[in-house]
């Protein structure tokens, strides 16, 4: 019987339960129990299922280690090696004999990913629909396994998966749909932590061919803020495209428009937004949606209705000195729904009472007015200005500024006296001349000196006195002597002498008179 037990253990790779009573190191001290016949029906079925739990199968017996010697202990303590109980006592179940593992603290359950974002219809045909979306913001601790697309016919609550296995692409085309059906579509993000809350299309998709996807062609001047004044009309036409005829939806802040103030007219190619008289309450962002069977395009029209600002506040006359005045104020309470570009400062004198602009478009809330007239009394006012124009009212100073005359003593500038006295000096001498008989001639020279020198003309060292033949003149220091119709007798040496109290000077020249040929 022993060889049979050992061969059975070798085939199974486990310690044979019948060999357990023959082991001497077992806790039971009696050797009679070890000599009992091997087939014991009671312990064998109880120990058989427990033999799969211990790691004993990982160490099968080898040639160096006999499978079941009578005097050798079991290689690994297992439930099979537990001695059989005494006769008449039923064997307890194996689960009760195995030591219970210590309970481990449970790990916190990982959160599933968040919902996919921006689920939209990209294209619809007569038997398919193409969807696009964006990845969820949070994927949890586990990596994202992919997405599951589910569809449900309109009027039913039975959701079925369109794809067999999760996929990582954010674009999917659902095929084999029936033309004319309306289906609801939703997309889930799936990870090892579970599935996300589905992202669902707001409207069912009608499965039919879209000849042209909806697209809004927003005019260039409407892509920025559209500014109008209070009372002006707002008349905007926005073209779009799409076949069949798209559904046009206008909203403001996710709410329908007030049709008592705003008129909308839609055609197959454009939509017209009209307000007869704009008010500041009409300012804001208007959302335009053009939709065809779940496929849609969106645009935003930003309108700003403005009016002139209110007057500046707290205008003060800070200081007055010399010809200058310093002013300060604060911005207006109401800017007219438009940025304040600057301020216009005006002055008025008490005598005329008229207002004149002193500063135009002052960008600060303080200024200095200069070049005021002495003796005048001035008042000041300030207008605020925005894109609509000047404020209707102005802030006026409560006080006036009187420009007083400052007392100053006039002190003439001391100029050093210069000695202008100098003796006569010829700056241009006389030059020799040749003339023809009967033709008058002139002799010139220039002289300077202070006091003005006296000029004496001489011929051949003889002073020329009152002779009608000679005319002597002096002007701006230039001396001239005219000889009228000279004859050969008038030829000779002519001298010009200048005399003053500081001295005298003289120059001379030779005059030659030739007869007629």
From TrEMBL:
<dbReference type="InterPro" id="IPR036116">
    <property type="entry name" value="FN3_sf"/>
</dbReference>
<dbReference type="Pfam" id="PF00041">
    <property type="entry name" value="fn3"/>
</dbReference>
<dbReference type="GO" id="GO:0007155">
    <property type="term" value="P:cell adhesion"/>
</dbReference>
<dbReference type="InterPro" id="IPR003598">
    <property type="entry name" value="Ig_sub2"/>
</dbReference>
<feature type="domain" description="Fibronectin type-III">
    <location>
        <begin position="311"/>
        <end position="406"/>
    </location>
</feature>
<comment type="function">
    <text>Binds to myosin; probably involved in interaction with thick myofilaments in the A-band.</text>
</comment>
<keyword id="KW-0130">Cell adhesion</keyword>
<protein>
    <recommendedName>
        <fullName>Myosin-binding protein H</fullName>
    </recommendedName>
</protein>
<dbReference type="InterPro" id="IPR003961">
    <property type="entry name" value="FN3_dom"/>
</dbReference>
<dbReference type="InterPro" id="IPR013783">
    <property type="entry name" value="Ig-like_fold"/>
</dbReference>
<dbReference type="InterPro" id="IPR007110">
    <property type="entry name" value="Ig-like_dom"/>
</dbReference>
<dbReference type="InterPro" id="IPR050964">
    <property type="entry name" value="Striated_Muscle_Regulatory"/>
</dbReference>
<dbReference type="InterPro" id="IPR036179">
    <property type="entry name" value="Ig-like_dom_sf"/>
</dbReference>
<dbReference type="GO" id="GO:0032982">
    <property type="term" value="C:myosin filament"/>
</dbReference>
<dbReference type="Pfam" id="PF07679">
    <property type="entry name" value="I-set"/>
</dbReference>
<comment type="similarity">
    <text>Belongs to the immunoglobulin superfamily. MyBP family.</text>
</comment>
<feature type="compositionally biased region" description="Pro residues">
    <location>
        <begin position="38"/>
        <end position="82"/>
    </location>
</feature>
<keyword id="KW-0514">Muscle protein</keyword>
<feature type="domain" description="Ig-like">
    <location>
        <begin position="424"/>
        <end position="508"/>
    </location>
</feature>
<keyword id="KW-0393">Immunoglobulin domain</keyword>
<dbReference type="InterPro" id="IPR013098">
    <property type="entry name" value="Ig_I-set"/>
</dbReference>
<feature type="region of interest" description="Disordered">
    <location>
        <begin position="1"/>
        <end position="123"/>
    </location>
</feature>
<keyword id="KW-0677">Repeat</keyword>
<feature type="compositionally biased region" description="Polar residues">
    <location>
        <begin position="1"/>
        <end position="10"/>
    </location>
</feature>
<dbReference type="InterPro" id="IPR003599">
    <property type="entry name" value="Ig_sub"/>
</dbReference>
<feature type="compositionally biased region" description="Low complexity">
    <location>
        <begin position="83"/>
        <end position="99"/>
    </location>
</feature>
<keyword id="KW-0787">Thick filament</keyword>
<feature type="domain" description="Fibronectin type-III">
    <location>
        <begin position="115"/>
        <end position="210"/>
    </location>
</feature>
């Amino acid at each position: 019987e022993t060889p049979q037990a050992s061969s059975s253990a070798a085939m199974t790779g486990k310690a044979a339960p019948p060999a357990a009573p023959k082991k001497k190191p077992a806790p039971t001290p009696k050797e009679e129990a070890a000599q009992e016949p091997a087939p014991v029906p009671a312990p064998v079925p109880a120990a058989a299922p427990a033999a799969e739990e211990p790691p004993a199968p990982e160490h099968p017996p080898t040639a160096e280690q006999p499978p079941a010697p009578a005097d050798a202990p079991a290689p690994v303590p297992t439930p099979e090696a537990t001695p059989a109980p005494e006769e008449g006592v039923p064997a307890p179940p194996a689960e009760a004999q195995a030591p219970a593992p210590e309970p481990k603290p449970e790990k916190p359950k990982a959160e599933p990913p968040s919902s996919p974002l921006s689920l939209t219809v990209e294209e619809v045909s007569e038997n398919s629909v193409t969807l696009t979306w964006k990845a969820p913001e949070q994927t949890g601790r586990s990596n994202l396994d992919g997405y599951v697309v589910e569809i449900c016919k309109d009027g039913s609550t039975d959701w079925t998966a369109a794809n067999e296995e999760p996929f990582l692409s954010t674009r999917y085309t659902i095929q084999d749909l029936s033309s004319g059906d309306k289906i609801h579509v939703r997309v889930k993000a799936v990870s090892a932590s579970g599935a996300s809350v589905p992202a669902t299309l707001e409207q069912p998709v009608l499965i039919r061919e879209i000849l042209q996807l909806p697209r809004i062609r927003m005019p260039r001047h409407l892509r920025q803020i559209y500014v109008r004044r209070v009372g002006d009309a707002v008349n905007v036409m926005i073209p779009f495209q799409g076949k069949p005829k798209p559904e046009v939806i206008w909203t403001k802040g996710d709410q329908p428009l007030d049709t008592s103030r705003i008129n909308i007219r839609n055609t197959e190619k454009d939509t017209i937004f009209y307000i007869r008289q704009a008010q500041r309450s009409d300012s804001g962002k208007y959302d335009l949606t053009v939709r065809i069977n779940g496929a849609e395009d969106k645009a935003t029209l930003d309108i700003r209705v403005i009016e002139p600002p209110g007057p500046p506040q707290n205008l003060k006359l800070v200081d007055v000195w010399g010809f200058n005045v310093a002013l300060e104020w604060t911005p207006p309470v109401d800017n007219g729904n438009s940025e304040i570009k600057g301020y216009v400062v005006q002055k008025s004198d008490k005598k005329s009472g008229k207002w004149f602009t002193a500063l135009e478009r002052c960008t600060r809330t303080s200024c200095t007015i200069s070049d005021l007239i002495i003796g005048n009394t001035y008042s000041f006012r300030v207008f605020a200005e925005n894109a609509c124009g000047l404020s209707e009212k102005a802030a006026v100073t409560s006080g006036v500024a009187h420009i007083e005359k400052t007392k100053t003593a006039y002190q003439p500038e001391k100029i050093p006296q210069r000695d202008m006295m100098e003796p006569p000096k010829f700056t241009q001498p006389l030059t020799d001349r040749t003339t023809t008989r009967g033709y008058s001639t002139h002799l010139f020279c220039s002289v300077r000196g202070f006091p003005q020198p006296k000029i004496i003309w001489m011929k051949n060292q003889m002073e020329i006195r009152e002779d009608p033949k000679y005319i002597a003149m002096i002007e701006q220091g230039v001396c001239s002597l005219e000889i009228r119709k000279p004859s050969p007798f008038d030829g000779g040496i002519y001298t010009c002498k200048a005399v003053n109290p500081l001295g005298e000077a003289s120059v001379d020249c030779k005059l030659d008179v030739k007869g007629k040929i």
